[in-house]
Amino acid sequence: MTKDIVKDKVRGILNNYLQMNNHRKTSERFAILDAVYDMKGHFSLDELGETMESQNFRVSRATLYNTMRLFIELRLVVRHRFIGQTKYEACYNNEDHIHQICTVCGAVTEIESEAITNLIADTKLQRFRKDGFSLYIYGVCSRCQTKISRERNKLKTKKQDNR
Ligand SMILES: [Zn+2]
Ligand SMILES: [Zn+2]
After folding, report:
1. What integer pLDDT is reported at residue 62 of this predicted model?
2. What's the DSSP call for residue 59?
3. Element housing 75 (H / E)
4. Could you read off the pLDDT of 60-76 as tens digits, one per residue?
């Protein structure tokens, strides 16, 4: 699915929801939705606000927050609670990846695994309708591994020097 098609689909979902619930169709909500689907990967509310501001679109933090809550409800956005930070992510047509979370620096990277995606699709759930999934693998990123082993080596040579 190309980005334009995804954007059309999510706009349609928001449009339907607003229509069915007799909400006003403020252009603000659609602008935020567009901005969300233009963001790359995970982002904080502040990052989203700054990006919109740089495009001369000012939205209050309260509006952003409330709109994101609506988007989460409509399954257009997922909220991640990564280590020490809350991040959002556009999830329509983008939920089949796995997050690698570094427990030292908090960096989050993504990988794709068709095997796991298929496995979850085939998993029998109990009295539950699946909407999507998020998977987190905790560990240490390669940058932190290098740093840790460098510091370990330093400590070793210090000990040897003291002999
Ligand atoms: Zn992600
Ligand atoms: Zn790290």
Report:
1. 95
2. -
3. none
4. 999 999 999 999 999 99
Alpha-carbon Rg for the chain, nearest whole angstrom, is 21
Both tokens of 116, joined, read 């796991």
**86-119 pLDDT tens trace:** 999 999 887 778 999 999 999 999 998 889 988 9
The rounded distance, in Å, linking the Cα atoms of 68 and 79 is 9
Ligand located closest to 42 CA = 1
Structure tokens at 53: 């501001």
Q: For residue 71, report the phi and psi dihedrals to the nearest 5 degrees.
A: -65, -35
Q: How far is the CA of 38 from the centre of ligand 1 (A)?
A: 14
Q: pTM of the prediction?
A: 0.79
In degrees rounded to 5, what are phi and psi of residue 88? -115, 160
**Cα–Cα distance for residue pair 135/110, rounded to 1 Å:** 10
The CA 143 to ligand 2 mean position distance, Å, reads 6
* CA distances from residue 56 to 1, 51, 62, 65 in whole angstroms, order as listed: 29, 9, 18, 19
**Distance (Å, rounded) from C-alpha 159 to C-alpha 54?**
53
